[in-house]
Design brief:
The complex is a heterodimer of chains A (about 110) and B (about 120). Chain A is an all-beta fold. Chain A has no helices and 12 strands.
Chain lengths: ~110, ~120
């Protein structure tokens, strides 16, 4: 079945450092890919998404490119801030499975000033 | 616009009891999905409802059930609770329920502790 693997955390960075959180997937067909984020004390929310190969999702300075050849959707940010401290989840949904999101286990990010 | 609301926020039950959790989607949203979040298994899909019909179901035992009302509000029920049912239960709604890649909006969750 479909699955998502993301790098384990926790990840600790200093402010203004570069961030990459790796995410790879296994799926039949052409799934849509998502990054969700859970800030401390807040609801899980969509950060960005990409619905077809080579699409780049972007939001709040974060980017991720849907790479079908490597089945990857790595999350990147050039300069992190303390406010980016959160848990990041990679997920996919496949046609025929409607809104059944398949999730990675999450990566905790702590950014120190 | 109000977000997804879930009640109660916290619940403590004992083994063998049953529990009902409630979810009110964003106004106008017709699709409601439920997820279980645990430290070991992460987020796992329970089921999805659209127009009062269960449209998709995850790999959970029959003790887990749900329903959706005509106003799109949804409830999930867990009968004969087990210790392993302790988790955060998240509800998510999406607008039209027609596109599989449609964004889902999550509520704060109900944290269930089974003793």
């Amino acid at each position: 079945g479909d699955s998502v693997t993301q790098m384990e955390g926790p990840v600790t960075l200093s402010e203004e450092a570069c961030l990459t959180i790796n995410c790879t997937y296994t799926a039949t067909g052409y799934p849509s890919l998502f990054w969700y984020v859970q800030y401390p004390g807040e609801d899980l929310q969509l950060l960005l998404k990409a619905t077809k190969a080579d699409d780049k999702g972007s939001n709040k300075g974060f980017e991720a490119t849907y790479r079908k050849e490597t089945t990857s959707f790595h999350l990147e940010k050039g300069s992190v801030q303390v406010s980016d401290s959160a848990v990041y989840f990679c997920a996919l949904v496949n046609a025929g499975n409607n809104r059944k999101l398949i999730w990675g286990l999450g990566t905790s990010l702590a950014v120190n000033p | 616009k109000a977000g997804v609301t879930q009640t109660p926020r916290y619940l403590i039950k004992t083994r063998g009891q049953q529990v009902t959790l409630s979810c009110s989607p964003i106004s106008g949203h017709r699709s409601v999905s439920w997820y279980q979040q645990t430290p070991g298994q992460g987020l796992q899909f329970l089921f999805e409802y659209f127009s009062e019909t269960q449209r998709n179901k995850g790999n959970f035992p029959g003790r887990f059930s749900g329903r959706q009302f005509s106003n799109s509000r949804s409830e999930m029920n867990v009968s004969t609770l087990e210790l392993g049912d302790s988790a955060l239960y998240l509800c998510a709604s999406s607008a039209t329920g027609t596109a599989f890649q449609e964004t889902q909006y999550f509520g704060p969750g109900t944290r269930l502790l089974v003793l």
